[in-house]
Amino acid sequence: MTRVCLLLSALALAAGCKPARTTTSPGPAEPKGPSVAAADIDINIKGRDPEARTPENLDALLDDVRTKTSVPGIAAAVIDRAGVLAIGTSGTRRADEPAELTVDDVFHLGSDTKAMTALLVARMVEAGVLRWDMTMAEAFAGDPMHEGFRDVTLTQLMRHRSGVSTALTDLPPGIMQRLEPLSLVERRALLTSEALAIAPRTTPGSNFEYSNFGYVVVGAAIERAVGRSWEDELKAQVFEPLSMKSCGFGPTATGDARDQPWAHVDMKDKFVPVELDNPAFLGPAGTVHCSLADWGRFAAVFFDGASFVSSDSVDRLTSPVPKSDGRGGYALGWAVPELEAFGIPVLTHDGSNTVNYATIVVMPTLGAAVLVAVNAGGDRAQQAAVAAAFELAKQTRGPQPD
To answer: Measured between alpha carbons, how far is 187 from 163 in angstroms, rounded to an integer?
Structure first.
């Protein structure tokens, strides 16, 4: 389990009465010029494994995980080509109140938003608005930028191989004060301008270095291309056509709200409800919230035979570049672990805004996905989400040949 936990956790973003819960089966080097990225891993996510199995004791598993980790609440769903195969919850919306989670609640997805941004780019590429190899010089034509970034592409940004900043401390002092009076779109434009004005941290196209700002830059490129916010474009191009009606942005509950899960900070002796989230300008990197069923509609795009985008787009979105340690690779918003980690090819990612945690495992050849969300952040929340996801993936996959 430790090996898989490490694999998934490396991707985290540094980011009434409940109905009866039953397992259901409803119908810093100066670059010397552009370089070629490493070759893609040859991983075949096509083909067909046996049909997805209905996991056994989903509710019992969630109760057990919550008991062992003491997280306020945890929810999970398994979806297949027909829709929700199994869904369940355990625990409460707030640690200090009795109202339980429901299967229709929405959960903060953190960095699992990145794959949604990448899918939006795919839709825009197919519409002729963007290109996979669009450079920063093209996306932000006429804007000043460091020479080392001019040939960096949208694909390199989404693969975390652009050399762009990884923290606000990389940017000029006082950047937060300069952002305050600006609109959300203007904030992303300013952050992008500042991030692209300094030398790349590494030679673009070379090293994997996880960067939320890379996706902020992608969001700014989208906004420059269409003249409206990333949020509006994601709703129009992804949420609405996929009927993801519950999806939104930011915290799931604040103020007097009690109809959705609250975020929690782990104080070691207890979990405390808080009104915290990533800054809104980080939206393309990690501010989406969704119900598990709607998140499943997104995951289903990556099943064999999906028609929401072309097969070429799916291939590009899911083709990883190997990481230097040889342990799998990273595609566009997806980690692609080595085959033996799960026994079959999978796409996976973790997401956290430090006060929520979410994990997704998509098994394309099986036509199934496992989604897990915890309304808390920290180590215990990570352990709960990853443990539940790994076990449910095994149960859904079924016994494997020796």
So the answer is: 21
Q: Please give the Cα distance from 12 to 354 (Å, whole number).
A: 9
Beta strand extents in 295-355 (DSSP E only): 321-322, 329-330, 335-336, 347-351
Q: Is residue 271 part of a domain?
A: yes
The domain of 170 spans 128-227
The alpha carbon of residue 311 and the mean position of all alpha carbons in its chain are separated, in whole angstroms, by 21
pLDDT at 9: 35
Q: How confident is the model at residue 321, as a pLDDT?
A: 86
Of the three residues 211, 227, 243, the one that is the final residue of a domain is 227
Strands 329-330, 288-291: pairing is: unpaired
Residue 320 near residue 41, CB atoms below 8 Å: yes
Crossing angle (nearest 10°) for helices 212-226 and 184-197: 120
User: In terms of Cα–Cα distance, which of 282, 279, 287, 285 is closest to 108?
Assistant: 287
If asked whether residues 178 and 210 sit together in one domain, one would say yes
pLDDT at residue 398 in the model:
80
Nearest to 352 by CA among 386, 305, 312, 324: 386
The list of the chain residues with pLDDT below 50 reads: 1-46
Let me know: does 331 contact 125? Beta carbons within 8 Å: no
DSSP, collapsed to helix, strand or coil, labels residue 249 as strand
Q: Decide if 357 contacts 341 (C-beta within 8 A).
A: no
Predicted confidence (pLDDT) per residue in 26-85, tens digit: 332 222 222 222 233 333 444 556 678 888 778 899 999 999 999 999 999 999 999 999
Q: Which two tokens stand for residue 371?
A: 């989604």
Which residues 6+ apart lie within 8 Å of 343 measured at CB?
Answer: 394, 397, 400
Q: Are residues 247 and 384 in the same domain?
A: yes
Helix axes 292-299, 113-126, angle to 10 degrees: 40
| 282, 386: one domain | yes
pLDDT of the residue at 52: 86
Answer whether 150's CB lies under 8 Å from 136's CB.
yes
Secondary structure in 3-state letters for 39-80: CCCCCCCCCCCCCCCCCCCHHHHHHHHHHHHCCCEEEEEEEE
pLDDT for position 322: 76
Distance CA 267, CA 300 (A): 36
DSSP type of residue 169: G
The pLDDT tens digits of the residues spanning 235-279 come to 999 999 999 999 999 999 999 999 999 999 999 999 999 999 999
